[in-house]
Amino acid sequence: MNSEIRKTLEAVKNGELSVDDALLAIKKEPFEDIGYAKVDLHRGIRQGAAEVIYGAGKTPEQMVGIIGAMLEHEVKTILITRLSEEKAEKIQKTYPQMDYRKDAKIGTIGQFPAADGLGKIVVATAGTSDIPVAEEAALTAEAHGNEVVRLYDVGVAGLHRLLAHMDEIMSASVIIAIAGMEGALASVIGGLADCPVIAVPTSIGYGASFGGVSALLSMLNSCASGVSVVNIDNGFGAGYLASMINHITEGKKS
């Protein structure tokens, strides 16, 4: 059972919400059709997290409309990924409260929830050039209620930099390993950590890296157990998956 329905039912149990009000909250329209988009208003009920707006390919006007529908239905935290600075500036004319993070190309409206995951999510990069993808992952995880520890520029070209952070690695609930070039960081961390490792290949590298394909194949062929891989530069996907893992409770039923 996802967190939103659980909170509603607990509020009824504690006398904080009437049965009728709880029923109304659950029965609200599952989506709102605004012509160019059908805003999924039941995403939080089904999955425990609101719909995320993918900014690439959408006009600022379309995103303003989607944001308006979400705010009208009291979505507390709105996350917009792959948002260019130019589009962000136009959106902020209507919603000046939007916080825009240029490196991550992420816009957020509303407060991040308090961290309520099982533990900490570590986001580690091989190099400084991987930070934009790492920040997309880290902010996604934080927007979904997780405590995030950032370990940047700890790649295998200087392995001692990573080994200096063994306490953070060994105490993590989930680790996101982000690397371009040959993508070796994921295998190294996978051989050290006792938690799930999500590998993110990046498009950083010289010609033979083929825009991240080399790192992707290296990560897919990792000899370390417990390493899974998302698509090239997909920091959002890694952050979201890490959040799901970090919120799995013992005995949870599907």
TrEMBL record:
Q: Which residues form the signal peptide?
A: none
User: Which InterPro entries does UniProt cross-reference here?
Assistant: P2CMN_synthase_LarB, PurE_dom
Could you tell me which Pfam families the record lists for this protein?
AIRC (PF00731)
Q: Where is the PurE domain?
A: 119-251
Name assigned to this protein: Nickel pincer cofactor biosynthesis protein LarB
Origin organism is Ventrimonas faecis
Q: Which gene encodes it?
A: larB
